[in-house]
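Example record

One chain of 711 residues, shown exactly as stored in the release files.
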Amino acid sequence: MRFLRKIMKHTIYRNVTVFILAVAFTVAVVSTAVVVSAVVNISTGGQGGPALVKLLAFVFLTPILGALTVTYILRRKIALAIKLIREEMNRVRSLEDLSDMSFKKVDFGFEELNEIRTGLVELVERLNRVAVDRKTFELELRLLQKLIITSEVVRDWRKVARAVLKNLNNVIRFSYTFLVFSEGGKNTVYVFWNTKRDRRVEDLIKDRLGEVGEFNHLELTHAGVNAPVSAGSLRLRKLRRPSIGGALACGMEVLTPLHGEEVRVIDNFLLVLLQVIGSLKAVDEFTGKLEYYATRDPLTGLYNQRVFWEMLSYEVERAKRRGYKFSLLVVDIDNFKLINDTYGHEFGDEVLRRVADTLRDSVRKEDIVARYGGDEFAVILPYSSGEQAVHIADRIVESIGNLKFSSPDGKTIKVSVSVGVAVFPDHAQEVKHLFLIADNMMYRAKEEGKSKVLLPKETDIEETSRKLGEKGLMIIEAVENRNVFPVFQPIVDLRTSELHAYEVLMRLETEDRILSAGEFIPLAESMGLVHKLDYILMEKALKEVADSGFNGKVFFNLSPRALILEDFIENILSIVKNSGVDPGRIVFELTERDTVKNLELLKVFVNRLKDQGFSFAIDDFGAGFASFMYLKHFPVDYIKIEGEFIRSLVSSSVDRAFVLSITTMCNHLNIKTVAEFVEDETILKAVKDIGIDYAQGFYVGKPVQKPEKYG
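Predicted structure tokens for this chain:
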């Protein structure tokens, strides 16, 4: 019986079995009918014919009717099973409907149909898994898309974080998000509210994270969100130690119902969110420091030379419009080189810092104090006459003269300063002329015994004007007589200690002395002759390089003022071609001071020469914020780190951090780094330890008249 029931589960077997039974039944009935017919004929004497016909008709019709009945029943049962399957499939309208199909445990009564049901169930489960995976992936993608930020400079990380979280609320609803950062030795919590602020959150966060420091609450939007604080829906991820920007933990009270893998997606996303906003915070802090040091001298905190010239130009124009006087002081520390050489740079830097502080304290709040360079300072005194300026200058001399320094050998050192004064418009009406008069007065004060203040007389103004005229005539003669000549300062590979390149420096030969570039380039630029000096320098320098057999790189500083000339690039290409020096060995240095004003013009210059095989370097990198703009817009090969950072590398942790950051960035960008102002063994070791590629400075090589044969 068990075997028979098993067979009957299969439709084909069942039909065959019914057919066999029907045939057997028919044979048995016919046999019985024959026997009965014979018996009837014998007993009736052959009179039972009609009855026999009826009997045979019944015998033949019965199996047929039985087969039709069985077929009808089977067909109806199969039709019901197919209808059930169709109804379940038609109910599928969404991903959730796949998991709600009700025929998983239905017995259709036929083995074949049950096998089809099993296959369908497996197919549905696989489709459901694929659909869930896709849904999870789409959720991850939508979340990550909300983290995309622009390449614009981050001015306020909180503002950018607020925008990111507002966008995120379009994907997943939350009542608040908080981030924890390590700041100044304590953990600070920033809570971004998407609903009304609830102080209970502070206790909730403390319970989950332990003791934290300050809480900062920032609002996002209340649109459509009005939910009470609940610990049950709080998702939290935290790091073992602070990551970039001091990031420690990120939490979110999620209002959107989460299913299965979505919980894991949100938890992982919180880590990504923490790292992204931590990066924003780090960039914000870093750019803040960069902007500060773009305008400030890193050693003293005073305005730097670039800002001084901008401020002086602005003050001249303002004084012209409003018709008032102002004064300019040029202050220089007496015998500073002797102090620096005797007691070292670290002690010299301490002297510079304290003198700068005293200068700042000795003037009015509205006065502008700048470190012009080295041991020289400049002070702009708005709305002050010559008499007022002398009074302030005397106070400066007295205050600095009262300073006392303890030298490394235990001695008490005192310093003094000499001050030159110039008044606008009494002594000059042009920026450069005004500065030169004050500068000359400062040198005159030194000649007259130092620790003095000098205001120019009429004869002093005439003499300064005459000197300016003489220098201008000297520049014209230098162009006509080709009195420009190059000197070559070595750039050394720090890994091999071998010569890598030379930077070509410009010198001007006069009857009695040799002038460095800083003494005549500004005037040559104002006269429109600097490009002619550049041409002469390149011709002579490349000839020296070719004759010497030196095969390394050659760095040139070209004045950005020359870029406005239509034929400048063609002349440069012609000079290089005639020299026979491979363009791939020539590196042009870009400086921020003036070229930032001609960015589009500079792009044309750089791209054309880059196509010819020339290389480019950014000079004085870090001295101004726009240095980073050059990295974005130009294909740079070298970065020459601002010498002031290198000089203070050992004594200043801030400068060391800046140099380390620049070096790390350049390594990622595959840009070579050059340290300028390497003046002693200590600095050389420091730049090696940081991983800078090349060094330049008096300690590694002083400028020479001719390049050595090398490479």
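Notes: The chain has 23 helices and 21 strands.
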